[in-house]
## 1
Amino acid sequence: MDLNIMSFENVTFTYMPDNESVRPAVEGLSFSIKQGEWIALVGHNGSGKSTIAKLMNGLLFPQSGTVTAMDQKMSEESLWEIRSQMGMVFQNPDNQFVGATVQDDVAFALENNGVPHAEMVQRVHESLRQVKMEEYLNHEPHHLSGGQKQRVAIAGALALRPRLLILDEATSMLDPQGRMEVIETIRELREATGLTVISITHDLEEAALADRILVMNAGHKQVEGTPEDVFFAGNKLTELGLDLPFAMRMSKLLTEAGVQLSNEHMSEDRLVEDLWTFYSKK
Ligand SMILES: Nc1ncnc2c1ncn2[C@@H]1O[C@H](COP(=O)(O)OP(=O)(O)OP(=O)(O)O)[C@@H](O)[C@H]1O
């Protein structure tokens, strides 16, 4: 049977339970994530994404409904066991460094967890290799780019061998190059290890690579489906204040201008391929 990595069943959380005029940050939310899936959680500001992240790692507990992680109900008792199987990477690359060098940084949590020295060295190398940062082992963090810093943060999480990696707006402070590096790292990691990934993001280009997208609006799940399902319901996203990926917007404009594409494309590569075909027939 598939391991249930994370599920919410009818979860409601409000920051001000005594004030009935304040709407819950998350209301009646249900979803379930299986081992090996990549889920993107998207929604505009205030839609409930950060609250969901906090409910996922037990920083908050719902007033009603159930959060289950790694097949265990989230509670004060199960919290530490659950967290030990979950890696998190946050928004600001500069707030996450604790070591003086890249390898010290990745080793930090391992040391705290009492991992023996020889195994620690091996895990530090292995996880830095997975994010292609092994050659930066002895570099000081402030000399790295934003994308490289986030890749080291991912390595730090991977060194603990989590079942689930949660990226909480991990690309939102990066320049386009840094974003691409991190997204590519996640894509490769998933291919190589089958790691389960939840990425909380404003970036629909990033979400387009996920297996499934969950769109939040005002504390409710508005749409859920594959990137195709979600993006082809295009107007709904625009109404929720979310931009379609660039390639889809471009596809729409080209179609309106009379260019006969085979489809609306989610990726720039496929759009370019289609345009080659279109113009080579002319
Ligand atoms: N600590 C808090 N106390 C009171 N209300 C809060 C608190 N944190 C969030 N909220 C409210 O809960 C709702 C959901 O906020 P949340 O931060 O989860 O959304 P978000 O989608 O992560 O937004 P953003 O992208 O801006 O971080 C919003 O109405 C917000 O104002």
## 2
Amino acid sequence: MDQGAAAREILPEATSPQTAAPPAGDPLLPVTLGELQELQASFAKDRDWDQFHSPRNLLLALVGEVGELSELFQWRGEVPRGLPGWTPPEREHLGEELADVLLYLVRLADVCGVDLGRAALRKLEKNAQKYPVDACRGSSQKYTAYQEAEAEGSKS
Ligand SMILES: Nc1ccn([C@H]2C[C@H](O)[C@@H](COP(=O)(O)OP(=O)(O)OP(=O)(O)O)O2)c(=O)n1
């Protein structure tokens, strides 16, 4: 049984055309990329939306959702980590937009025949070779020293 079928067996309503998406705090957690891929594929199939899920359409939908995500940060200035001051509804909205981006990305990879998990792991490996720890730690120290010198300079 594939991962998506297993997911649907645990929670059949997750992909039913008549019902909403899985509720929060659901038994599918923690979820894998493969399970999300299967759930997204079933979502589209159930609605006869496969015809619209072409690579180009999905890419445009993905970019649209990245735009919606960007709007949440627009005009706020720098936003510290942990998003202090953001209200629960704002945080929920952020989660929704991030999810839209992820779901379209997973679907795009699927219809393009790319194993996203494998590709991401390969890319992590490549990144690690391109940016060796020692070289980067050295340069971030240099960067901190540079920032301190700049701050000192702006005081005088
Ligand atoms: N043809 C479609 C339409 C929607 N979805 C899914 C993927 C996204 O997770 C979500 C996007 O739905 P909407 O287009 O309604 O966009 P939003 O949820 O962002 O709504 P809104 O634009 O009103 O904020 O639904 C999909 O897979 N395929």
## 3
Amino acid sequence: MTYNELSNQIFQKQSYLCVGLDTDPRKLPHHLLSEPDPVFAFNRAIIDATANLAVAYKPNIAFYEAQGPRGWESLQKTLDYIPADCFTIADAKRGDIGNTSGLYARAFFDPTAAGLNFDSITVAPYMGHDSVMPFLDYAGKWVILLALTSNPGSADFQRLATGDKEELFEAVIKRAHTWAGPDRLMFVVGATQADELSRIRALAPDSFLLVPGVGAQGGSLADVSRRGLTAAGGLLVNASRSILYASNGTDFADRAHDEAKALQAEMAEYLAVGNRQ
Ligand SMILES: O=c1ccn([C@@H]2O[C@H](COP(=O)(O)O)[C@@H](O)[C@H]2O)c(=O)[nH]1
């Protein structure tokens, strides 16, 4: 999906919601456990309930890897089920020396070589340009680089001073701009870091930002939207647990719909105002 196609989806659906498919088999509603593939049955119901409200889906790969070969099968079926008008994110946080990154890229971007066919992957920037470029070698695919993450430990390294009034996450954003433009590169910024969004927008005015951390982690959609929205939309705000596990009964998909609808309705208001600090 291109930059303009993603932006158009946001304005058509009046939403910049990304539904995180962090599907934990231990949290599935009991009645799904007799399904041949309970994880896929759950994801299919969540996708059916939210597809008109979301512009992106983000399976967190850990939840599937932890299930062994069955997990990869559930992931493949889920990816195939996501509607074509939705952007797909492999939240895998990969990155290694070049030849290894090349194989990670193949695993997530190249269905002709037994890989999956995601639109994008999250990548850790710590190993530098040669760990990131192999992902960018895949035309039309996106890299989403960790910049300022939502967790408390983000301060340990990401906020270290790297220059006069510059912190490491800012150096990452500046350097990454020399690798690819906003049409191929996004940044992860936690919703819990909304105070820093104005600074980040100054460095990356046109980039899409993937913003996890509303819902279960307590980030504010209002603050993120006020500081992060751009004329193209420019945000993908992720919620996982607050949508997936809104209920663990037979009504789980309806409750997931309600949670997603509440976020989408709020997003539509912010898009209408179009405000940005
Ligand atoms: O900084 C980051 C980067 C990634 N994540 C991931 O997003 C979801 C958030 O899940 P919630 O249940 O909505 O809290 C999850 O997959 C994380 O691994 C993040 O939270 N923060």
## 4
Amino acid sequence: MNKILVTPSSSSYPIYFSQNFDHILEALHHHNLLHRKVCIITDHTVDSYYGNQLMDVLKRSYDDVFKFIFEAGEENKHLNTIQDMYKFFIENHLDRNSLIFALGGGVTGDMAGFAAATYMRGIPFIQVPTTLLAQVDSSVGGKVGVDFLQHKNMIGAFYQPTFVYVNLSTLKTLPQKQLSSGIAEVIKHGLILDDNYFSFVESSTDLVFDLDEAILEKIIQRSCELKASIVSQDEKELGLREILNFGHTLGHAIETLLNFELLHGECVSIGMVGAAYLSYKKNLISWEILKRIEKVLQSYHLPIRINQLESEEIYQQMLLDKKVKNNKIKFVLLSSIGNAVRVGDLNEELIKSSISYLKSDVQ
Ligand SMILES: O=C(O)C(=O)C[C@@H](O)[C@H](O)[C@H](O)COP(=O)(O)O
């Protein structure tokens, strides 16, 4: 199995890449994780495709395999679902030696990780991401948590998995909208860290939509490498890691205000256009680069404008961003394709001009 190592200060763990679930037992054996109760956490949609596949593989080596299934969707990423998980763990006598599997997309990974981080003050968990977004982004780096009172990821922790196991074949059942949503984070990685990668993704649209295995594998591994290098340097987002939040300041505000009507990656796409526009206004990038970014996002069927919200409500929601300090919104901008800069001194007028841009017609 191919693997990439993530080395944050608290632990070090691999991301394994496979074409099925069979090799997960090897990995579990290697990490000394046999002989215990295990619990798969997944949503109804993913369960219908992969719940039993993973269960059957695990049953070859474990006597007690439980499955907790919840309703799919970001609107269920809250503390009530976590409470239901705790109750399920207690009912089934999960103990400190037990092991949690997060089987699914970002919502599942974030919640299962948070439940694992807090149940009995922490039990081990494995990320088994089945969406492109989870494979390239949310399963790596240990950000776990839930939304709270309409605030995105407001309650959470940094809690690293024992390993990440990517079964690339799960992308075959992923709806196109979800694929595009994941590509938004892939484009983000190119924009903030690697111009060659950005160009590669820019020219791979048809192959990505055709689910070309070699191309997707290359993309997932490169994104994981890039993300791993950042979280390995700054696990708790004390500085550098903030660049991974490119597009998220506006994106999270839009996602929350729309009550999760748009997917996470779709909101990040709009947010990245807003941040690219600010980069242009600060003379960091040219108008041509801004248009190039918009074109790539559009080619992957991602939205680049938002009309249905008021500017003021977007601005107020952005003030709740986790990067706000002393009422100043810190933005991640681009100084070129492949290079990000963190900027904390943007004034309200300029920020609002980027929201107006997002409400303007596409030229
Ligand atoms: O891993 C990170 O760090 C990121 O910021 C990656 C983001 O793409 C991801 O959506 C993350 O969950 C957002 O975190 P938040 O701290 O802004 O809620």
